Amino acid sequence: MCSGDNNGRGIGNLNRTPEGAAARQVLISRGIPAGAIHDEVNSRSTRENLVEARKTMQRYGWQRAIIVTHDYHLLRTLSQARSLKIDASGAGVHETAMFRPPLVLREVAACVVKAVIRMIE
User: Fold this and answer.
1) What are the extents of the domains in the chain?
2) What pTM value is reported for the model?
């Protein structure tokens, strides 16, 4: 399943092609049959993306998932998947076309905020 956040277009909707559609194109170019790819291009957050992925998994009777995302994003994504009762393992990708430090800082901040919210609740 190919997916992406922020209407599938990344931060600020600067990308014209949704991330899920771009990932689909890459997979097809590498020999994956189009019929084996289930893209999701409407989510605006990691959580929305996981909810849509869970729907696809339920539709096809899939029990486990492997989440492939940027390595700096993997911990939070797997945590959210667990909270949604998705049985998943992860594979972190190091390559990115974007400048990496702000993305890593964003993830650290998001994890800290989540931890603080858990402490307050």
Assistant:
1) 2-95
2) 0.69
3-state helix/strand/coil string of 16-66: CCCHHHHHHHHHHHCCCCHHHCCEECCCCCHHHHHHHHHHHHHHHCCCEEE
The answer to whether residues 73 and 111 touch, using CB atoms and an 8 Å cutoff, is no
Quick count: other Cβ atoms within 10 Å of Cβ 1? 20
**Burial of residue 37 (number of CB atoms within 10 Å: 0-12, 13-18, 19+):** middle
Residue 20 makes CB contacts below 8 A (sequence gap 6+) with 2, 3, 4, 8, 39, 40, 41
| Distance of alpha carbon 54 from alpha carbon 64, whole angstroms | 10
* pLDDT tens per residue across span 96-115: 655 567 777 777 777 777 77
CB atoms within 10 A of CB 39: 20
CA distance 60 to 77: 22
Question: How buried is 63 (Cβ within 10 angstroms: 0-12 exposed, 13-18 middle, 19+ buried)?
Answer: exposed
